């Protein structure tokens, strides 16, 4: 039977499956798809924002990559991505899903222990800082900034303080340090001259009233001299 044009367009997908098998979700992303599928749309939107802001960077660092399922979105736009996490199970899972087309260097590393070896012209951390106790947040950020070049860009994303009454019980368990957007901006201004704040509701990034935002993103550039790297 001759395939129609509509069927032919899917042949590449069929060939890929037959050769390499199905692509699969990771430990955390798989749970998210089971528990609340729309959560994946929100996560993809956050990573797409990062990807567009860091587009063209040569070497990028992700701190707290989890299972690194969404990291591939950033890898599409940068030359090299190093993703680190302190959880060995996440790192093992991420490495098991290695892609030759979108290679990501995944390392086991705790950002509270020290900087990541190497230098980077871009870095980001999404949904991590809210899990870091307030008395350790400066150590976390200083270790991230230490590996950045003088003209690097850093992006931090985290749930807003105002969102917490509406967060699920599962989410609130580890949220020990959610912040008001203005406080998050002030924190990052200790490390960068320029800090630009964005609000996010669901998958929409905007510059609307911060207190009504579910999620905060700050884009930082212009390292202060005390934290300037190579």
Q: Can I get a quick summary?
A:
With 230 residues, this protein is of the alpha/beta class. Helices cover 33% and strands 24% of the residues. It has a single domain (26-227), classed as 3-Layer(aba) Sandwich (Rossmann fold).
Describe this structure in words.
- This protein is of the alpha/beta class and 230 residues long.
- It has one domain (26-227): Rossmann fold, CATH 3.40.50.150.
- It has helices spanning 5-8, 11-20, 27-35, 38-53, 71-75, 88-96, 137-146, 169-172, 181-188; strands at residues 59-63, 80-85, 105-108, 120-126, 148-159, 192-201, 204-206, 215-223.
- Helix 6 (88-96) links the parallel strand 2 (80-85) and strand 3 (105-108).
- The termini are far apart.
- The model has no long low-confidence stretch (mean pLDDT 92).
Radius of gyration of CA atoms, rounded to a whole number? 19 Å
Number of helical stretches of at least 4 residues = 9
First-residue to last-residue Cα separation? 63 Å
Count of discrete structural domains: 1
Unreliable stretches, pLDDT < 50, 5 or more residues? Answer: none
Average pLDDT for all residues:
92
Helical content stands at 25-40%
The CATH H-level homologous superfamily:
Vaccinia Virus protein VP39
